[in-house]
Amino acid sequence: MYKSIFTLIIINIFLFEYNIAQPGGGGGLVVNSLYNQELESIKNKGINIDIQNFILDKNQIIQERDIRYSAPYNYNTEDYQVVLYPYESDDYSNYPASESDQRLIIFYKKDTMIVDFRGVIGENGAGHVDYMDSLVFKRGHYTFQRNKTDKHRYYYDFYNDYGQYLSNGLTPYTIDTLMKIGLVQYNESIDFSFFNNENLPSVYHYYKANSLFLLEKKTDEALEQLNISIQKNNGKRDCKTLYLLQQIYATIEDYEKSIDVITEAMNCKKKYWENESLEKNYRLRASLYTKIGDYENALKDYDRMVNRSVNKLNANITRAQFKADVLNDYNGAIDDLKKDIEDIPSRHLSDRPIGTSEYKITYFVLGNIYYQNDDIKNASYYWMRGLEIGYARGSTNNTVIHFDSIIVKHPKNADLYFCRALAESYRGPYLGWGEDSRVVFRNAISDIEKAKEWGLNDFKYHYYKATFLELLKKREEAYEEVSKAIEINNQDPRPYLLRSTLKRKLGLYTGNVYEEPDWLKFKELSAKWEFQK
Predict the structure, then answer these.
(1) 61-74: burial string, b at 16+ Cβ within 10 Å, e else
(2) What percent of the chain has pLDDT over 70?
(3) φ, ψ for residue 177 (rounded to 5)?
(4) Fewer C-beta within 10 Å: the chain N or C terminus?
């Protein structure tokens, strides 16, 4: 397993001298890519990550170094390399010994990872630096000993095994291997005692407050450290301090102070553009107003959030849910979401009629609000539309459970069985294509038959049943069903694509795929297909 993970995330690199502009020419460390534990890329400039870099000597901070982002080694990715600068020396011969420490601290979401890189190439005029392909985020404190002895400290050892181990990165596979040979040590606990020096500047007290709050939930001590940070910063409360203060006050349920602080931070630009920052701040302040029962100001902030929104759909959904859940203004919530739907172009998805739409959540939430307003007919319709355009694709069964509870109350509603059939079928591809997948595909067929029993016997019944049968590799039966769907509705492009695929898999067509008649019909109808709102 680890071997496959290692293969997945390691990009082939050339193990020769890697050059990058550094003070004095070279030195330091380049980390090409950061991943979370699910091996998803962490965007280095994203809002959920904060990275700090220090040069240490025996756990004492010598200096804090800026993190620099540079163009990625792979220019087809949106990621940026993280560049850790070397310890500055007076002459190029002063390479760090194996005890030298480049400390990288990553605050990601609500957790922390510390990596001590010992023996990283020091400042040099040749442009040589250490290079790490991939770092997988995992909570804890890691020590990466690049060299076992001082004799390997010079940049020429980039050619030997130690340099190659470093270049391969910190991943589940490499960590396991490197711990066995003594180049990596791991400690589950996070120790911020190196911030304890009384003479440290204000920013270190902020970091300590951040760690106390995030890791240990010690709000009183965190506030004490923040106050020291503010005092050392000449009484100035900068953006980072304000955001942390807001979180602490909200945690201890002092919502009035939390509102005051986020209001002060309203125009802060922290790692994202002004409009996006304001949108998030209005959203946050609205939620705080809601906690103290000030719904009038909360609604005003939700309106401001929508006006400033970078993603109008998500902003409207948030405001609509507030109107429905808090104000019981179902009509107002429905009107907000219907305006989004009215604005959908008729040509929407004509280029991908079996694709996923960005409006899928809007439809599904609108269905939820209709259901809250005791309108099962409209609720079912919008749930169906949301599912048909991609809602609930993934391995979780949350949407299936949603319909389980509603079908209990409405056991003769054909639309609800149809919705649950789609929700079940969407899970299958994410469950490994083994028996777990076959179970949900069979459940989907059972539900589509239930839908037919209670009145669904049209194009959709035959088309989606054919889809489920094809997923179970019952292709002859699928071919019969999709042909029936086309007899009922010969203007929808989707069943033609499915039948074209089935023809090839059944050996009914062996020519050029792009000349197959059903494929050509799919392309013809897609060009003029109009989105059903």
Answers:
(1) beeebeebeeeebe
(2) 81
(3) -70, -45
(4) N
Tell me the sheet residues that pair with 144.
Answer: 117, 184
Q: For the chain, what is the mean pLDDT?
A: 83
Q: What is the dihedral of CA 27, 33, 37, 38, to 10 degrees?
A: -170
Place of tokens 């990872």: 113
Bridge partners of residue 228, in order along the sequence? none
Picking from 367, 409, 411, 412, the residue whose alpha carbon sits closest to that of residue 387 is 367
Query: What does the alpha-carbon distance between residue 367 and residue 52 come to, in Å, rounded to a whole number?
Result: 45
Q: How far is CA 501 from CA 219, 459, 497, 505, 512, in A?
A: 60, 19, 6, 6, 12
Cα separations (Å) of 272 from 45, 281, 493?
9, 12, 41
Contacting residues for 371 by C-beta, under 8 A, at least 6 apart = 379, 406
Instruction: Tell me what the mean pLDDT of segment 512-521 comes to.
Output: 94
pLDDT tens for 70-93 read 655 444 445 667 887 766 543 343
Q: Report CA-CA distances (Å) from 2 to 18, 71, 177.
A: 27, 29, 10
**Contact status, residue 456 vs residue 418, Cβ threshold 8 Å:** yes
Q: Give dist(CA 265, CA 250) in Å, integer.
A: 15
β-strands 49-57, 60-65: how paired?
antiparallel
Distance (Å, whole) CA 201 – CA 206: 9
Beta-carbon contacts of residue 416 (< 8 Å; ≥ 6 apart) = 380, 403, 406, 407, 410
Give the largest CA-CA distance in the chain.
84
Report pTM: 0.65
- Give the model confidence (pLDDT) of 447-495 as tens digits: 999 999 999 988 999 999 999 999 999 999 999 999 999 999 999 999 9
216: amino acid identity, one letter: E
Within 10 A of 220 (CB to CB), how many other CB atoms are there? 9
| Cβ pair 276, 315 in contact under 8 A | no
Confidence (pLDDT) at 205: 80
Cα 128 to chain center, whole Å? Answer: 34
The residue with tokens 């299936």 is 400
Q: What single-letter amino acid sits at 273?
A: W
